Amino acid sequence: MTKYRKLNKKEKQSRYFNMKARCGKEYQDRNPRYRGTFMCKLWEENKEEYYKWLDKNFYEVSGENQMDIDKDILQYGNKQYHPDLCLIVPHSINVFYETIEVGESNITQNSFNKKYSVKVKNGASWIRSKDIDTYNHALDIYCDIKQGILVSKAKSLKDYIPEKVYAALMNTDIRTINCKHYRDAESEV
């Protein structure tokens, strides 16, 4: 069962000013993935509207040390903090989405045998696959591993998060998010 909670004024103010800071140039210069992020006019001009949104949407999950506002889950790549585009999610989910795209260290190629290896962090451990013939196949494996982790996380949280959040997690297509990383002309080794 989702445990909704109303934040006190100080907690709301802190969350508002943290969100506003992420929309600022100084923060975005230090954190390039936030470049272009902005707050909708409604929230920017009237923080009380943001506070009302928090009152309707804020909940807590036992065992999660922090709950975050996320702007990317409903619409991956979204840059706008807006009531229709944001969700409150456990911090572990927010962090997962920060690393949803393949990184340089997730897929590597052995210079001797030209085979690819995949490694994906899952909590404190790593999931690995090796001796893969092509980069695109390695990327498929990466996406399958990440999708499996996400589905597992979502199912474990199902009884503690709002249905809207659960549905958004289950509807995330990691392969679609990573499609820009596939290589066009790739031949088998």
Shape call = globular
Average pLDDT for all residues: 95
- Distance N to C terminus: 51 Å
**Count of runs of 4 or more consecutive helical residues:** 8
Number of strands: 9
The largest sheet is:
3 strands, antiparallel
Helix content range: 40-55%
Strand proportion: 15-25%
Q: Care to give the gist of this entry?
A:
Helix content is 42%, strand content 18%.
Which characteristics define this entry?
189 residues; alpha+beta; three-stranded antiparallel beta sheet; two-stranded antiparallel ribbon
Description:
This protein is an alpha+beta fold and about 190 residues long. The strands form four sheets. It has a three-stranded antiparallel β-sheet, with helices on one face. A two-stranded antiparallel sheet has the order 1-3. It has helices at about 10-20, 25-30, 40-45, 45-55, 90-100, 135-155, 165-170, 175, and strands at about 5, 40, 60, 65-70, 80, 85-90, 105-110, 115-120, 125-130. Helix content is about 40%, strand content about 20%.
